[in-house]
């Protein structure tokens, strides 16, 4: 058996076999350890290789020192290829990859420590098992099937050098597996990202309610699959309108925990369009590209308004008390409503007068309200008046009452709505109210709130009997049958979030019906 033992002094080695030293420093250097040969690097030895390493099956490397792998020239190969069939541990030393042309790393064996200090990159040609990854410069590229694995469950098993702030210079572009011990380690960082940047994920507050049964978590970051069509997620009374296209995170344990919780921090490096207090972490199954699958993790909570994890300056989105794992994205709420409307009503006072009334709970930057009307048979709404905001400078947190009288002698069905206008010109519409002119009497239908959480009120004014009504989906499939009198509390909480149609035949007279969309949110 051929043996080379390197004792404690600095050693520059360029070798073509385990027993042959080539004296030409300009040649393409490679350390090739043949079957049966043993290389021993003792503690304190620094072995610098101007080229790559090939370990044949049956050879052995025992490293207690430092082996630095560089290129021999700018474009020379500096790969680490180990053809060992039966895996073993290289020893307690470290391997430093330091080159500009890139490194291929392929080995079944276990490294004690790998320092990534390459202005190029490292590409994994197999799963690479390391007790400690120390990231200085250069990204680690994996594929869909290979992983950078941190075997130690200590917090610093994946560590950034002081010059690698926030893993900006070195990270894993692909799959990272970290072994964890949540009963004693409170925080783990997963410095994953894409080809251009790190978008790390952090699991925090682990020891207060440890996750049981888990040994490791696989993490990666990538493009968001699918689009936002069908997104129906809501939280704390607000609807999510999109999931940021900057990317999604995948966090997958070896087994699902049956108990325990954690807080998640997702760093939105390179994301655009986020607004303070209007974003939060959502989850859906790993394989899903369906926007309807996005949900707020059950039992979890968000930090308070203007706290880290809710504002852009923190650099991350945070959600506390999560008990499961999956695909995670950063959902975005719609802009805060400029006006909170308590109610909106229209009723006929006489043959020639209709009163429109509404009440606001809060107003922000509100200029006022256009009152709009459409008569039965007309195709579009037209403005019939304007009610300026009663709020001082358009802002109020007190209840304010409004009314508008329309000179309307139309005997058929009249439809009313409000167009709320901000001071900056933006606007939103209320839902529609219908009024029927019937001599000195009137019939009106009021539905509120809309959107709702599956419970709403329908009020029929000016009627003296009960009316049959139906609720259908948008395709016309019958879902509910109702019997309506003057005031009716309706529950459709058994239906999923979406848009439904309520239809009240003949409520305004024979052949004159009421139909309106009902938006159910969750």
Helix amount: under 10%
Number of domains: 4
Question: What structural category do the secondary elements indicate?
Answer: mainly beta
Give the overall form: elongated
Uncertain runs are 7-29
Bin the strand percentage: over 45%
* N- and C-termini, Cα separation: 71 Å
Total DSSP E strands: 43
* Number of helices, counting only DSSP H or I runs of 4 residues or more: 0
What is the makeup of the main sheet?
8 strands, antiparallel
Estimated radius of gyration: 34 Å
Overall pLDDT level:
87
Characterise the protein shown here.
The protein is built from no helices and 43 strands. The chain folds into 4 domains: 179 residues; 118 residues, no CATH class; 104 residues, Immunoglobulin-like; 74 residues, Immunoglobulin-like, CATH 2.60.40. Strand 29 and strand 30 form a beta hairpin. Strands 31, 32, 34, 35, 36, 37, 38 and 41 form an 8-stranded antiparallel β-sheet that branches. Strands 7-9-11-13-12-10 form a 6-stranded parallel β-barrel. A 4-stranded antiparallel β-sheet has the order 19-20-25-27, with no helix packed on it. With 522 residues, it is mainly β.
In brief, what are we looking at here?
This protein is mostly beta strands and 522 residues long.
Keywords:
522 residues, mainly beta, Immunoglobulin-like, 4 domains, eight-stranded antiparallel β-sheet, six-stranded parallel barrel, 50% strand, elongated
Topology:
Blueprint: E1 3-6, E2 11-13, E3 15-17, E4 20-21, E5 29-33, E6 38-41, E7 46-55, E8 60-63, E9 66-70, E10 80-82, E11 94-97, E12 103-106, E13 110-124, E14 128-141, E15 148-150, E16 158-160, E17 172-173, E18 176-179, E19 188-190, E20 201-204, E21 216-222, E22 234-235, E23 238-243, E24 248-253, E25 262-267, E26 279-284, E27 316-322, E28 327-333, E29 339-350, E30 353-363, E31 366-375, E32 382-388, E33 400-407, E34 413-422, E35 427-429, E36 433-438, E37 441-448, E38 455-461, E39 467-473, E40 478-484, E41 487-491, E42 498-504, E43 514-520
Parallel strand pairs: 1-6, 2-7, 5-7, 6-8, 7-9, 7-10, 9-11, 10-12, 11-13, 12-13, 13-14, 14-15, 14-16, 14-17, 15-18
Antiparallel strand pairs: 3-4, 18-21, 19-20, 20-25, 21-24, 22-23, 23-28, 24-28, 25-27, 26-28, 29-30, 30-33, 31-32, 31-34, 34-35, 34-36, 36-37, 37-38, 38-41, 39-40, 39-42, 42-43
């Amino acid at each position: 058996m051929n043996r080379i033992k390197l004792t404690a002094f600095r050693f520059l080695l360029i070798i073509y076999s385990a027993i042959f030293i080539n004296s030409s420093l300009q040649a393409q250097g490679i350390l090739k350890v043949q079957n049966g040969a043993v290389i021993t690097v003792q503690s304190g030895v620094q072995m610098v290789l101007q080229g790559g390493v090939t370990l044949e099956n049956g050879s052995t490397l025992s490293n207690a020192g430092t082996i630095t792998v560089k290129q021999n020239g700018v474009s020379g190969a500096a790969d680490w290829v180990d053809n060992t069939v039966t895996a073993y541990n290289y020893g307690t030393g470290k391997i430093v990859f330091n080159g500009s042309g890139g490194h291929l790393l392929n080995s079944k064996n276990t490294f004690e420590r790998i320092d990534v200090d390459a202005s190029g990159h490292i590409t994994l040609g197999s799963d690479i098992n390391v007790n400690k990854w120390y990231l200085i410069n250069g990204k680690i590229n994996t594929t869909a099937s290979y992983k950078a694995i941190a075997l130690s469950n200590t917090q610093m098993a994946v560590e950034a050098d002081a010059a690698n702030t926030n893993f900006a210079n070195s990270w894993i572009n692909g799959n990272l597996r970290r072994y964890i011990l949540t009963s004693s380690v409170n925080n783990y960082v997963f410095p994953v990202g894409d080809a251009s940047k790190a978008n790390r994920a952090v699991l925090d507050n682990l020891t207060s309610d440890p996750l049981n049964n888990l040994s490791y978590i696989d993490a990666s970051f990538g493009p968001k699959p699918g689009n936002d069509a069908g997104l129906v997620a809501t939280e704390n009374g607000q609807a999510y309108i999109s999931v940021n296209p900057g990317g999604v995170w995948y966090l997958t344990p070896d087994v699902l925990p049956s108990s325990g919780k954690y807080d998640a921090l997702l760093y939105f490096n390179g994301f655009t369009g986020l607004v303070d207090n209007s974003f939060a972490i959502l989850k859906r199954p790993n394989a899903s590209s369906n926007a309807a699958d996005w949900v707020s993790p059950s039992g979890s909570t968000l930090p308070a308004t203007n706290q880290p994890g809710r504002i852009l300056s923190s650099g991350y989105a945070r959600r506390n008390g999560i008990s499961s794992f999956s695909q995670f994205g950063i959902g975005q709420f719609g802009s805060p409503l400029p006006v909170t409307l308590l109610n909106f009503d229209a009723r006929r006072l006489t043959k020639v007068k209709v009163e429109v009334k509404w009440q606001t709970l809060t107003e922000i930057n509100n200029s006022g309200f256009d009152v709009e009307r459409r008569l039965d048979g007309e195709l579009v709404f037209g403005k019939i008046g304007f009610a300026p905001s009663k709020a001082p400078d358009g802002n109020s947190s007190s209840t304010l009452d409004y009314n508008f009288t329309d000179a309307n002698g139309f005997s058929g069905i009249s439809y009313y709505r409000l167009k709320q206008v901000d001071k900056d010109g933006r606007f939103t519409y209320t839902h529609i109210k219908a009024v029927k002119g019937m001599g000195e009497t009137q019939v009106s239908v009021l539905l509120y709130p809309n959107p709702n959480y599956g419970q709403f009120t329908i009020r029929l004014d000016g009627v003296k009997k009960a009316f049959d009504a139906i609720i259908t989906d948008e395709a016309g499939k019958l879902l509910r049958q109702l019997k309506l009198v003057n005031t009716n509390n309706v529950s459709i909480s058994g239906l999923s979030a979406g848009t439904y149609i309520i239809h009240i035949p003949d409520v305004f007279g024979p052949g004159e019906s009421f139909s309106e969309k009902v938006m159910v949110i969750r």
